[in-house]
Design a protein that fits this description.
0% of the residues lie in helices and 46% in strands.
Length: 517
Amino acid sequence: MFTFVTLNIYTVCGHCQGGDINCDTTSGVCSAGCQDGWKTQICKETVDPPVNLTVTDITDEGFKVTWSPSPDPDLQGYHVVVPELDMTTSINQSTDQTWLQVVGLTSETDYIIGVTVLVLSDGRWSQSNATTTEATTIMSSSTDLKFDNVTETTSMLSFTWVPPDGVVTGYRIMYGQEEATEQLSPSPGPGERSALLEGLQPDTMYTVAIITIGVRQESLPLIGRNATESDECATVNGFCDQICTNVPGSYSCFCRQGFVLMADAHGCESVEPPIKLAVSDVTDKGFNITWSQSPDPDLHGYRVVVSTLDLSTVVHQYTDKTSFLVFNLPPDTDYVIGATSLIWTDGWQSQSEAAVIQTYTVMSSSTDLKFIEVTESTLRFAWVPPDGVVTGYRIMYGQEEATERLNPSPGPGDRSALLEGLQPDTMYTVEIITIGVRQESLPLLGQNATEMSSSTDLQFVNVTESTLRVTWVPPDAAVTGYRIMYGRINVMVNKGSRRLLQLRVLVDLDFTLQTRH
C-alpha cells in the first residue's frame, strides 16, 4: 500500500531584499522584506514610482516639488530626499501630500530631488524606486532698496541697496514707468551699492528692479517704486530773477555770481567786487595782497584765491581784513589772484564777481657772497646758487652804486667771477642778480676794497757806518703817509776754514727819507 504526500515547494522566490538567501523556499516569504519597487510578503507585486515629478517656485533658499498621486491601493505616503551633488543630504522627509515645500537650502547650489511611494501590504512596509530630477537654487536677492532725496529730482532718481551674503559678480538695473523694461548702462559693478537714473520725466512714477548676479545664477528682482519730483521751475522759471532750482517738494531761487538774493527770495541785486586790488612786497616766497574796504552793509568778509596759470589752486582763504599775506610759494612762478566780496542778506549767502590781478614770485637770490682774492686792480668773489633752475647771472658793480655790468656774464654753472681794471685802494659795491626761467632775483649785495698800490724802485743812497739814506717812487694814488719798518740783520762771514756768525747791531741809525718822482 502506498501513501502519497503533497509538498508545496517554491522553486522561484520573489524580489527579496538580500536575494534568495532571505527567501523561505517553502512559503516564498521574504524575511528581510522586498527590494525597492516590490511589495507583499512574497515580493511579487510591483510598486510604481511617482510620475510627473516637477520643481517650481525656485528661490535662493528652496523650491516646491510636486508629483501626481499614486494609484496604488496600499499607498501610505511619500518619501522625499534632497541631497547636493556631493550626496550631502539636505532634506529627508515623508509626507502624505503630493507636494513638498523645500526650504533652508543654500543659494546657487545644485540639488538632486528623489521621491518614492510608500506602501503597507500584508503588514509589511515597502517603497518604490525613486523618481529623480535636478534643480538649482538661484542667487540671493539684494535687500533694503531705498530712494534718496537729491537736489535735482525732476529728472533723476538715486537709490541704494544692501547686497546679499554670497559672491556678487555684478548687478542688472531695470526701470520703466509701468514695467521695468529699460536697462541702466553701464551696469553697477560688484562693489557698488547705489545707482543713479537720469533723463527721467518729471512728476512720474518709476518702477526699479535690481537683479543681483552671482557666480552662476541671477537673483529674483528686488523691486521698488518712486516718483520723480514735479518741475516747479518749468512755469515762468519759478518767478525767479535768475536761477530756479527744484528741491524735494518745492523750489529755490538763486543768483549768479556777482548778485545776491533779495528779501523776497526771488529777485537778485548786484554785489560790487573789491576795488583797488594790488600786490606789494613781492619776494621769492610770496607777496602781500591789498584792496579797498567794501561799502556794502551786508558784507560778511572776503575770499582770496591764488592759482598758478594752469589753474592749480595754492591758496583758498577767507578773511575779514582788506589785506592778505601769501607765503611759502615756489619762486620764479606766475600767479593769478582773485578776491571776492562775501555777502550775507536775510539768511542768504552770495558773493561778488572776482577782482583779478596777476603777479609772480621772483627768483630766489644767491647767498654767501665771499671775496676770495683781492689785488690792487682786481676783485674775485664767489657765491652759492639758490635751489631752483638758474639760467644765468648779471653782475653789477661800481664805486658808490653798482652801475657797471660785468661782460660777459657768468653762465648758469658758474659760482665765481673776476672784476678787473679797478682802482687801487677803492671800495666797490657788487650786486649778483640770479636769473631764473621767468624771473630775476633780488640782488645779493656785498662791498670790498681793492688793495693800495706799493711804492716802487727802492734804492739805498749815502750809506755810512751809522746811516742809511733810502729813496723810492710813490704809487699813482693819493698817499696820506708811509710806515717805515727796520730792524736787525744776521750776517754770515767766512774766515779761513771756520764759519763765524757775527751779529752787527744797527744802533742809532739815522734814516734820511727821500722820495723820488
